[in-house]
Amino acid sequence: MVHHDDGNPGAFAAITQKTGAILWLPLAPQLLDAIVAMNPQDTRPFCRLITNFKRPFTKESFGSFFKKACVAAGLPHCSAHGLRMATFRPIAEPEMANRSMKSISGQSSNKTPAIYTKKANKRRLAESAMSKLSA
After folding, report:
1. How many domains does the chain have?
2. pLDDT at 49 > cutoff 90
3. Higher pLDDT residue, 7 or 52?
4. From start to end of 35-109, where are the E strands?
5. Are 3 and 13 in contact (CB under 8 A)?
6. Tell me, what's the pLDDT at 47?
7. CA-CA distance, 73 to 65, in Å (whole number)?
8. Per-residue pLDDT for 95 more than 70?
9. 8 part of a folded domain
10. Local confidence band at 33 (pLDDT 50, 70, 90 cut-offs)
């Protein structure tokens, strides 16, 4: 469930399905600029995602809708869950703390963020090793 924070148009609240935790998520400046540039009537889906039947998506129906849109866009390897998980990698790369990843994902444990942090650390270590080796 997503709610717009009228006090801050650059953020929205998302309520996690599993725990009911409220996450205040800032919008990337590029996304906010794109939304602001849109015709106001076209921004309504950002306030509440609804189906063609004017009902809120369930988690499963949104996943199916998103997957079909990805396939239609020529991106059959993409999914809503994959997009969410893909957010972790660029957060892990600049050595942000696990709690930064958890604040965006709504996760309470360090298990999943640790997977991405470990992968990012391996990449940095490999780059550093190759740099030293080539010197």
Report:
1. 1
2. no
3. 52
4. none
5. yes
6. 54
7. 12
8. no
9. no
10. confident
Higher per-residue pLDDT: 46 or 34: 34
15 in any annotated domain: no
Residue 128, in any domain of the structure: yes
Residues with Cβ within 8 Å of 92's Cβ and at least 6 positions away in sequence, in order, are 101, 113, 116, 117, 119, 120
Report the alpha-carbon distance of residue 47 to residue 71 in Å, rounded. 25
Residue 36 to residue 43: CA distance in whole angstroms: 8
Reported as type and span, the H/E element at residue 64 is helix 59-72
Domain range enclosing 122: 87-135
**pLDDT at site 71:** 94
Place of tokens 């893909």: 86
In a domain, 79, yes or no: no
d(CA 3, CA 22): 10
Three-state secondary-structure class, residue 121: helix
Calculate Rg over the CA atoms of the chain. Answer: 18
Hey, what are 65's tokens? 């809708």
- Answer whether 9's CB lies under 8 Å from 32's CB: yes
- Please compute the mean of the pLDDT values over residues 88-96 and round it to a whole number: 70
Q: Per residue in 61-71, is it b (16+ CB within 10 Å) or e — as a string?
A: eeeeebbeebe
